[in-house]
Recover the amino acids of this structure.
């Protein structure tokens, strides 16, 4: 048997085939590739020049270093990670191919794992040029954050996957009429994730909601590292624990929505 089987019957060959499918789909369209680079580049240039202006007129931001630029890059990891996952899923919806996949030997968990890996590939295409622009134009070396960067990245990508899995399940159940949620869901979390300001800015009652979101811990940890030169491992561990719960819940929600789509016939009739 030449197929490499992983634990619990997962097939690396089937997962690899799906990744290869999305990779070829990405390479076949230069506008898709351009879009992955264009928006992150535009973000970093716009917000970078804003930070330069603020730093020239406010002592705190001069002392805080690249908190604004760092926040923009971390936010893009969170947003693009989720979007990279969801866009690959929507490609199947747009092609009306999801029913075929679900009738094949491909397991739902293998499908989701392929989408996760593809989100990392799409994310790298956009984020690497973004960080190089930050270094070239604003002398902010994102990679100088060192090992804490791994903790920041992992927690953000876990959150992005959890959101991506959940919104994909909603689109799967409700059809392409609900696809706008793919772009809007993460922005709904944006004010509460405290990307550009500390949690203390929020009203006291709203701070409890903010601390229930893993990205809040990451952005607070980033500010602590850049301003106070202190890496808060406690924040990262809290974020990791919440992310673990969110990923399990999102997997469960996706499988439940998939079963519901099969029962209601929306898996094959995936239009508006």
């Amino acid at each position: 048997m030449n197929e490499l089987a992983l634990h619990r019957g997962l097939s690396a060959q089937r997962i690899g085939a799906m990744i290869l499918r999305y990779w070829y789909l990405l390479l076949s369209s230069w506008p898709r590739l351009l879009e992955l680079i264009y928006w992150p580049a535009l973000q970093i240039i716009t917000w970078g020049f804003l930070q330069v202006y603020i730093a020239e007129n406010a002592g705190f931001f001069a002392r805080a270093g690249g908190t604004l630029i760092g926040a923009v890059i971390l936010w893009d990891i969170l947003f693009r990670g989720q979007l990279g996952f969801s866009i690959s899923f929507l490609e199947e919806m747009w092609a009306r191919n999801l029913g075929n996949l679900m009738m094949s030997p491909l397991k739902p968990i293998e499908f989701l794992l392929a989408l996760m890996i593809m989100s990392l590939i799409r994310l790298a295409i956009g984020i690497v040029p973004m960080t190089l622009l930050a270094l070239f134009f604003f002398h902010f070396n994102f990679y100088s954050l060192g090992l804490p960067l791994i903790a920041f990245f992992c927690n953000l990508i876990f959150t992005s996957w959890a959101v991506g899995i959940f919104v994909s399940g909603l689109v799967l159940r409700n059809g392409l009429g609900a696809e706008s949620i793919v772009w809007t869901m993460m922005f709904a979390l944006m004010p509460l994730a405290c990307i550009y300001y500390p949690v203390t800015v929020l009203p006291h009652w709203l701070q409890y909601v903010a601390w229930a979101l893993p990205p809040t811990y990451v952005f607070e940890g980033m500010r602590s590292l850049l301003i106070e030169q202190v890496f808060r491992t406690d924040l990262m561990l809290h974020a990791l624990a919440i992310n673990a719960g969110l990923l399990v819940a999102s997997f469960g929600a996706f499988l439940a929505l998939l079963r519901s789509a099969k029962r209601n016939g929306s898996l094959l009739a995936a239009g508006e």
